[in-house]
Specification:
- The protein is mainly alpha-helical and 136 residues long.
- It has two domains: 48 residues, no CATH class; 71 residues, Orthogonal Bundle (Arc Repressor Mutant, subunit A).
- 62% of the residues lie in helices and 7% in strands.
- A two-stranded antiparallel ribbon has the order 1-2.
- The N and C termini lie far apart (81 Å).
């Protein structure tokens, strides 16, 4: 008796075996197919038809190379921000730091005892300096 094997790459191989082994092999194949059919019937979601690729299966963590690039970009941008802060006056720097902490413009004016318009103009000057510094 000949048993035919079909491999995943499409190649076919036939093997000559004894009658008894061939009968056992065919019986085992039939049982496996019956078990698979029963499994597909009772299980609502089959894993056979799942696509194991795509965004859902990707590792959310960056690779070491990606992490190095992220760290380098962060360090460069942080250095540039520090250079920008050196261009500000002491009052502008103080107000910018308060804004970064979540303090409103009205609270800054109240703390410093100045008019709200003065704080708003100062912050607008910071924004203009920021645009010109980072547009280079």
């Amino acid at each position: 008796m000949k048993i035919k094997y079909v491999f995943t790459d499409g190649t076919v191989s036939e093997v000559e075996v004894d009658e008894e082994y061939g009968r056992l092999h065919l019986e085992a194949e039939r049982k496996i197919e019956n078990d698979n059919r029963r499994w597909r019937y009772h299980v609502k979601a089959s894993l056979d038809n799942c696509d194991y690729e795509g965004e859902w299966f990707q590792d959310p963590n960056p690779t070491p190379h990606e992490q190095m690039l992220i760290d380098t970009e962060y360090a460069e941008s942080e250095k540039k921000v520090q250079e920008f802060k050196k261009t500000l006056t002491d009052i502008q720097l103080k107000r910018l730091e308060m804004l970064e902490q979540g303090v409103t413009q009205r609270e800054i004016a109240d703390r410093e005892g100045v008019n709200l318009n003065a704080v708003q103009k100062s912050i607008e000057q910071i924004r203009k300096k920021y645009r010109t510094f980072f547009d280079k």
